[in-house]
Amino acid sequence: MSISEKQLDIWSRQGSIIQSAATYQALRNVLERDDALYAHRSYSTFLQGSYGNDTNVYADSDVDIVMQLDSVFYTDLSELSASDKANYETNRSPAQYSWTEFRKEVIAQLTKAYGSAVQPGSKAIYVAGNGGRRDADVLLVAEFRRYFRYASPSDQRYAEGICFWLRDGIQVVNYPKQHSVNCTAKHQRTRSWFKPIVRIFKNMRNAMVAQGRLADGIAPSYFVEGMLYNVPDANFGLSYCATLINVLNWLNGCDRAKLECANGQYFLFHPTSPATWRREQFEIFLTALINFWNDGD
Fold first, then answer.
1. Where are the domains of the chain?
2. In the chain, which stretches have pLDDT less than 70?
3. Could you name the CATH architecture of 15-174?
């Protein structure tokens, strides 16, 4: 007994976006004030996560905001040849400002506006909601460049991402813009089936957590999107029931080693990387999904 098409249709619908949009605008107004200590720096502010990618469901609460320092950038030169590395070092200019300073100044700006509602965490700065403003996580990052070629300032090639550091000093590198662009392209190629299917899987996950069938935190939304991004486009369509069957069957039989993150920069699984999923968590989630589907809850 599978889950009904009617229930899947309900789960496919996007959650409220009005309050999240108002929350984003309220925090953006604070972050981009002219009197901020970093106001003269080059930076950008944008949404990421479920609200940024239009895959939010009704249970989603926190609004994820990225505040990116663009005045300086950090690099990965490991894929450059020796000559290209030498060219890069010849042309580089040491930065006079750092991500660490930027983070301190942004926290001060948020605290000035929201006081004790601001709680710096290991990754993001949590800003508790109030009234019409939702809870928000502000992730402070710097531009990151993964270089593939550097012959000269006018002849270079790199993937642009973001980076930040955890409290233990570990650098986290990710590519949210590529993730968003690739998921949108996937949505278009599947004739607008992809994002509703993501929302269905997220709602199935939430229902399983609520019923005690799945531990919370096993399947973060970012990795659910990445998992489904790998499913061939032809498996999406006809109906939600048909798509769920096709997707679950494909995932159950796929070569796990070939699965990639939706950003196209990493494989989906790695045992230690903070930017990837754990293989064992995927297997737990997939098994729970198949059982949940078969039980028809």
1. 15-174, 179-295
2. 1, 61, 297
3. 2-Layer Sandwich (3.30)
Taking the C-alpha atoms of residue 64 and residue 127, their distance in angstroms, rounded to an integer, is: 10
Which tokens belong to 263? 């950003």
Region for 236 from its dihedrals, namely left if φ exceeds 0, alpha if ψ lies in -120 to 50, beta otherwise: beta
Closest CA to 166 of 139, 143, 127, 147: 139
Quick check: 162 and 153 in contact, CB under 8 A?
no
- pLDDT at res. 61: 67
Alpha-helical regions (H) of 48-193: 49-53, 82-91, 99-114, 176-189
Tally: H helices and E strands in the chain: 10, 7
pLDDT for 220-277, tens place per residue? 999 999 999 999 999 999 999 999 999 999 999 999 999 999 999 999 999 999 999 9
Q: Which tokens belong to 255?
A: 């070569």
User: Quick one: DSSP state of residue 277?
Assistant: B
Our measurement of the distance from residue 153's CA atom to the centroid of its chain's CA atoms, rounded to an integer in Å, reads 30
Residue type, 284: I
Is the distance from CB of 127 to CB of 117 less than 8 angstroms? yes
Give the percent of the chain with pLDDT over 90.
Answer: 85
SS (H, E, C) 161-181: EEEEECCCCCEEEECHHHHHH
DSSP string, 23-68: HHHHHHHHHT-TTSTTTTS-EEEEEEHHHHHT---TT--PEEEEEE
CA-based end-to-end distance of the chain: 9
